[in-house]
């Protein structure tokens, strides 16, 4: 049992679940989506394989720094020089199966969007940006937008204002999501020379940029009020306003509590809740 749980650790399954929820949300928003359960199943399967594969390649590439960081060093029990070859082969097989399944049984555009998420996470973020610039997670955050484009394209073979809105919502959400977490691991990032924002500019400046990014995210989340063609269901706006207010409370609190790291951890935790609840409200509405 521990072999399976350890293997799941290097696939970052908890992240993949929220990534899948992004794709499912975009899929559900397409009129008539309920009559295509098989396409939805294939979308989730292809996206899950790609996301897990990307996470495995990320962990293989980051083996040198992951052993130096408290949060990630336990991965070496599963991923180490002895198992790297096997895990590389499994990850490679997963992304190939993902691309074949999505391109053959859904459509090429969806397969390209899923593959785009894989490429942007593995190459743009992990290999090119992560160890070079404090903009790493801002630009690398586009990886999280691809599932929304894939979810809409699975049934329409196209892009829309709605799928673009969802893609950029995840993109805008990512810095608030990750910078709160990174503050709790700032010493790790300094030790491994990864230029995450708090490791370079300090905690107070990072809190400033978290608040700025969150204010922009809040205004962005309410854009459907101004763009009628982005139809997310009646409950979206009122729930978004409530979630925006609570998110702002969580991201401002550290500044009023002497930048105590536990409040950044709470803000990180709520940021995941924030995105999950906004997505679930959109998914559940058509069923009520
Ligand atoms: C470049 C963009 C991103 C970065 C750098 C990032 C970074 C991280 C890191 C370092 C963790 C902690 C993982 C661990 O300790 O094992 C994490 C957790 C997580 N991330 Fe992100 N993330 C990004 C984008 C996303 C996206 C797009 C999603 C989903 C839409 C997402 C969802 C999650 C979830 C659900 C967790 C687990 C939270 C928990 O364990 O409670 N992340 N992220
Ligand atoms: C459609 C598709 C495949 C999309 C992929 C999107 C995706 C998996 C985004 C997640 C990005 C992420 C968790 C980065 C963290 O890596 P890190 O190296 O900073 O985290 P670590 O230090 O925990 O390894």
TrEMBL record:
Membrane topology field: Multi-pass membrane protein
Miscellaneous remark of the record: Carbon 2 of the heme B porphyrin ring is defined according to the Fischer nomenclature.
Entry keyword set: Cell membrane, Heme biosynthesis, Membrane, Transferase, Transmembrane, Transmembrane helix
Catalysed reactions listed for this entry: heme b + (2E,6E)-farnesyl diphosphate + H2O = Fe(II)-heme o + diphosphate
Gene symbol of the encoding locus: ctaB
Annotated source species: Ferroplasma acidiphilum
Entry's Gene Ontology molecular function annotations: protoheme IX farnesyltransferase activity
Protein purpose: Converts heme B (protoheme IX) to heme O by substitution of the vinyl group on carbon 2 of heme B porphyrin ring with a hydroxyethyl farnesyl side group.
UniProt family annotation: Belongs to the UbiA prenyltransferase family. Protoheme IX farnesyltransferase subfamily. In the C-terminal section; belongs to the UbiA prenyltransferase family. Protoheme IX farnesyltransferase subfamily.
Pathway noted in the entry: Porphyrin-containing compound metabolism; heme O biosynthesis; heme O from protoheme: step 1/1
Keyword Signal among UniProt keywords: no
One cellular component (GO) term of this entry: plasma membrane
Pfam families: UbiA
Protein name (record): Protoheme IX farnesyltransferase
Subcellular compartments: Cell membrane
Transmembrane segments: 12-32, 38-61, 82-102, 108-128, 135-155, 161-181, 208-227, 233-252, 264-287
EC number: 2.5.1.141
NCBIfam families per UniProt: cyoE_ctaB
Name of the top EC class for this enzyme: transferase
Any one GO biological process: heme O biosynthetic process
């Amino acid at each position: 049992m521990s072999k399976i749980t350890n293997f799941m650790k290097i696939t970052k399954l908890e992240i993949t679940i929220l990534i899948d929820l992004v794709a499912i949300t975009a899929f559900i928003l397409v009129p008539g989506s309920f009559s295509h359960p098989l396409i939805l199943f294939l979308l989730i399967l292809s996206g899950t394989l790609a996301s897990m594969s990307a996470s495995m390649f990320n962990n293989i590439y980051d083996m040198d720094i992951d052993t130096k960081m408290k949060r990630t060093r336990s991965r070496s029990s599963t991923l180490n020089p002895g198992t790297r070859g096997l895990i590389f082969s499994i990850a490679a097989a997963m992304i190939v199966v993902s691309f074949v399944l999505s391109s053959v049984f859904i459509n090429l555009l969806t397969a390209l969007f899923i593959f785009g998420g894989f490429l942007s996470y593995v190459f743009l973020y992990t290999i090119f940006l992560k160890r070079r610039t404090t903009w790493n997670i801002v630009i690398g955050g586009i990886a999280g937008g691809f599932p929304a484009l894939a979810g809409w394209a699975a049934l329409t073979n196209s892009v829309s204002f709605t799928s673009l809105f969802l893609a950029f919502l995840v993109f805008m959400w990512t810095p608030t999501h990750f910078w709160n977490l990174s503050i709790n691991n700032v010493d790790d990032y300094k030790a491994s020379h990864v230029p995450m924002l708090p490791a370079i500019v300090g905690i107070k400046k990072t809190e400033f940029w978290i608040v700025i990014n969150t204010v922009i995210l809040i205004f962005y989340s309410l854009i459907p009020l101004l763009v009628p063609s982005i139809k997310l269901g009646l409950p979206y706006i009122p729930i978004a306003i409530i979630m925006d207010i609570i998110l702002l409370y969580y991201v401002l609190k550290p500044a009023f509590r002497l930048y105590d790291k536990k409040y950044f951890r709470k803000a990180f935790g709520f940021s995941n809740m924030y995105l999950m609840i906004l997505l679930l409200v959109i998914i559940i509405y058509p069923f009520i």
